[in-house]
Every structure is written in structure tokens, then in C-alpha cells.
Design brief:
Elements (H helix, E strand, L loop, with lengths): L1 H21 L2 H17 L3 E4 L3 E7 L2 E6 L3 E4 L4 E3 L5 E2 L2 E2 L3 E2 L3 E11 L5 E12 L2 H6 L4 H17 L22 H15 L5 E13 L1 H40 L7 H16 L16
Antiparallel strand pairs: 1-4, 2-3, 2-5, 2-8, 6-7, 9-10, 10-11
Length: 291
């Protein structure tokens, strides 16, 4: 069509020259009209870049969608329709089909236990059906953002941030311990919500997760207490094992014979030394425990 327009423009120029040579007003008028009209037809030449689509309407009705990249000439009476995606110079005439990242920031939600939690997620999405995205939804970018907020809130309210009981830690999902599985649940629910908009959710990732400020200090103390208890438990288990090994070794090699009272004293001293949080201060006993 570009070649046709160029040839017609050259023909109009030729008619204008012939009209001027032979003083023919009709030829001059046709030549001038052609030179003005045919360049205007170039306005309907459209370029569709890779991973873009162009949606056309004709007198308010859906006319068609160009999904393949290339150089096209479209009906002069059609218009490109994409009122929701701004470009550098106002409204873009095409719909991008590229993968896009949506970072919706962070929001405060309550987990299943009622604890306030700060959570944020990033969504990787793209338009797979540009016709649905433009005609079914007023603004598909804003629609996706709102649905993302709602999905994150709904999924986060179904799980606890962390479990108080260590025995149930392996059987129940938590926001902190099962972030990947919960993000996949968010992706599935969000994909079902935006399907009518012609959008595909490729991935959802939790980018921020923490307790809210009002309970962060208390939860930190609980975590510290849990860590201290676990460490003490390990220390006691190791100390008892070492004391038992020492007594058994002394008895097997006949190094020293200890009665029950001396064994009890030895056990007490060893446990104090092994379980103490500070360095033990040795005391030399020059007498007897029986005096």
C-alpha cells in the first residue's frame, strides 16, 4: 500500500505538471487534490513491534486485533483502541504483551491468629488476550493492582506467621516457613481472578514479611526465649551424657571406687561446671565429704 500511495502521489504530481504545461484547469485541480489527499493516506500505515498488539475499532464496533509484528495498512476509518495504557506522548496505540513486574508495596494484614503482619509481594504478569484486557476491564493495570492487594490479604489471613508449638511446625504451613508454597497459592488465586481480563500471572514472590511494629518487640523476646530454651536443652543433654561417660569410665578402668554419695557429689559438680553459663571457679577440698 505504501508503494501504491507513492505511485499515486507521483501521478498527481505528473497531472499537475501536465495541467500547468497545457493550461488545463481540471488536470491542475486533480493533481493538487491528489498531492494533498494521498499523503494523508500514509497516516493509516501502522507499525506493530514484537510483543505488541493493535486493537482496531470501526465506528464504535470491534474490528480486529493485529497480534503479529510488522508493517500494516489499516482501514482509514478504523481507530486504534487502548485507553488504559499511557505512553510517552499520551495514549499508546498498542497493547504490550511483554512480561511486566508489579510491585504493590507492603500492607498490614492479620494472620490466622490475629497478629498484625506486614507483608509485601511482587507479581510478574503479562497480557495474553489483549481484546479481553481492553474491552472487558476499564483499566487492567489498576484492576490487577487491586486484585493483588485483595489476594495477598485473603491468603495471609489463612496462615499463622509462625507456630508457637514446635511439634506442629513440620505439619502446618506458616507465612515464614512456607513462603514458597503460600506464594504459589497466591498465584493460583490471583490468576483465577484476572482470567476475565485476559491476563496471565507468571509468578508471585513474597518480598517482605515481618511482624507489625506494635508486637515486633514482644515476638522478638519470644523468639529469643525459645532459642535460649533450645540451647539449654542441648547443653543439659550433652552434660548428662558426659557425666555418665565419666562415671562409667572411672568404674570400668578401676581408677577410683565411688560410693553412691560420692557419685552424687561428682554428678552435681560436673553438671554445675558443664551447664553453667560462666566459667566455673575450682575449689580444692582438702578434707572429706564425711567430715
Amino acid at each position: 500500500m505504501l508503494i501504491v500511495i507513492v505511485l499515486l502521489w507521483i501521478g498527481s504530481l505528473g497531472l499537475l505538471v501536465l495541467g500547468a504545461m497545457f493550461s488545463t484547469g481540471i488536470l491542475i485541480g486533480v493533481g493538487i487534490a491528489g498531492m494533498i489527499l494521498f499523503p494523508l493516506l500514509c497516516y493509516r500505515l501502522k507499525i506493530v513491534n514484537p510483543n505488541e498488539a493493535m486493537i482496531l475499532t470501526l465506528f464504535g464496533n470491534y474490528y480486529g486485533t493485529i497480534l503479529k509484528e510488522g508493517f500494516y495498512y489499516v482501514n482509514p476509518f478504523t481507530t486504534s483502541f487502548n485507553p488504559t495504557e499511557p505512553g510517552k506522548n499520551g495514549i499508546r496505540k498498542t497493547v504490550s504483551l511483554k512480561s511486566t513486574t508489579l510491585n504493590n508495596g507492603i500492607q498490614k494484614v492479620n494472620d490466622v491468629l490475629g497478629n498484625p503482619v506486614i507483608i509485601g509481594a511482587v507479581v510478574i504478569w503479562k497480557v495474553t488476550n489483549p481484546t479481553k484486557a481492553v474491552f472487558n476491564i476499564e483499566n487492567y493495570s489498576e484492576f490487577l493492582s487491586i486484585q493483588t492487594d485483595s489476594t495477598i490479604r485473603n491468603i495471609a489471613m489463612m496462615y499463622p506467621y509462625d507456630l508457637m508449638d514446635d511439634e506442629a511446625a513440620d505439619s502446618e504451613k506458616t507465612l515464614r516457613g512456607s513462603a514458597q508454597e503460600i506464594a504459589e497459592s497466591m498465584r493460583e488465586e490471583l490468576a483465577s481472578r484476572v482470567e476475565a481480563a485476559g491476563l496471565e500471572i507468571e509468578e508471585v514472590r513474597i518480598t517482605h514479611l515481618s511482624y507489625a511494629e506494635e508486637i515486633a518487640a514482644a515476638m522478638l523476646q519470644r523468639q529469643q526465649a525459645t532459642a535460649i530454651i533450645a540451647a539449654r536443652q542441648k547443653i543439659v543433654e550433652g552434660a548428662v551424657s558426659m557425666v555418665k561417660m565419666a562415671i562409667d569410665k572411672l568404674g570400668e578402668d578401676d581408677i577410683v571406687l565411688l560410693d553412691e554419695e560420692r557419685k552424687a557429689a561428682m554428678v552435681s559438680n560436673l553438671l554445675v561446671v558443664l551447664c553453667s553459663g560462666k566459667d566455673a571457679q575450682p575449689v580444692v577440698n582438702s578434707g572429706s565429704i564425711y567430715q
